[in-house]
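### Sample
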Amino acid sequence: MDTSALPDTERLAERARDALGRCGVERLREPVGAAGVARTPITGQILFPVEFDTAASAERAVTAAHEAFTSQWRDTPAPVRGRLVHRLGELLREHKADLAALVTVEAGKIHSEALGEVQEMIDICDLAVGLSRQLYGRTMPSERPGHRLMETWHPLGVVGVITAFNFPVAVWSWNTCVALVCGDTVVWKPSELTPLTALACHGLLMRAAEDVGAPADVHRLVLGDREVGEALVEDGRVALLSATGSTAMGRAVAPRVAARMGRYLLELGGNNAAVVAPSADLDLVVRGSVFAAAGTAGQRCTSLRRLIVHEDVADEVARRVVDAYKQLRDRIGDPFEESTLVGPLIGERSHTAMRAALERAQADGGEVLVGGARRWEEAAADAYYVEPAVVRMPAQTEVVREETFAPVLYVLAYSTLEEAVELHNGVPQGLSSAIFTQDQAEAERFLSAAGSDCGIVNVNIGTSGAEIGGAFGGEKDTGGGRESGSDSWKAYMRRATNTVNYGGELPLAQGVRFL
Ligand code: NAD
């Protein structure tokens, strides 16, 4: 890539403005108090100023969402609520290219992955619309004659959604589409690094609300950094805080929400590994690993960070992965270019973290087999393009146990499956995992309770790229939350257990006699 291939910032700003206009964001924002900016990692430059919120304007947003909840939304029948999400899905389909362009401009994702992220939003709309007719409670047999025992599910209230830069729209939609059909209203604080995608999503949702006659305040957007997020953390009217981001953020947020007896749902950092058994199909291993480790420039929570390979095939796997990485070298650059496979890091901090991790790994005896260099540094001083790196490690040292949010893949060798599982589980995080094997018994052991301790456990595919039908989330330092499909909707509702006496007598449970 030469730098003439990088689009200039003015052209990117124009492209963003056009996409925003089509999504119904004519003016960037009413003045609410704080000066913010939208920036692109493609050139590292500022696109244009954007008005950010303050803690006070965030509080007003919660007031409006709370009012919409109590006055209208919680009593709107769930299938009617589903119509709003259905209409949003139609608008997302219509504006798929606009939203994907904004994701690329702001997060630096290659265009095909940006389109995939928007598709994920469309998919969750479909799922949530179906869900709007399936918020089932159970009926249990009562031990008392003439009684019925059942559960009903009710909306919680205002859901505060805090999201990370790397999935600027999909994670919002997982939360918001499900919360809305569950009868909650939403206040969204996106990453301060991705305000434009948020404005576009909010614009489309407001259009959908107008089209179906839903109250506009079912969704409020508040822009800004952690200070604005903290306003949601502290507000007792935010019944559920769903926060996606680093483990450090989760540690700051969780005790504060718990102290006010609020609920939280955390989707935090990962340190994902794949175990490669001697029987593995190595073609699958190489393809699956390169996409999972180098895709999205290593900036997915599910990115593959550790390859734990049986000693009999470790050299061959390392050699083949390195060969595949060498082919990436000419495909690092402008994420809008069709041929690009690796876009920029989000910013300088990620690059510093990657450099530091590589240095620490080498100090621990690791050998950098390929990658690690910064590209076109002189010509694009504020943009951070890097060659994805593979490092052969003699042991799982401290740096390997940490999440470095950049494309660094550590290769470790093992001799028995027990050792592989111990290495695999020997990190603080517990998000996504995989085993590559042709041995069914081995796969089952990895899937069993004594196997992987992660929330996502795959066989013969990589760690990233989950579908929305399953519940998404992880254990340990990943925070324990579950979002998206399966029965994740239950996190957005409260359960009431009802006993109805239609018998005319008043027998007490457990045979108790009184009066
Ligand atoms: P980050 O923690 O820096 O920020 C995430 C969000 O939290 C931002 O909106 C930020 O403004 C807000 N925030 C930070 N501190 C806060 C506080 N004290 N109170 C309230 N809000 C606060 O994360 P990031 O750099 O944007 O994203 C990368 C991280 O997110 C990685 O660790 C990645 O693994 C993780 N992530 C996890 C998932 C998942 O589903 N498990 C998904 C995407 C990203």
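Residues 355 and 372 are 7 Å apart (CA to CA). This sample (aldehyde dehydrogenase (NAD(+))) is used throughout the tutorial notebook.
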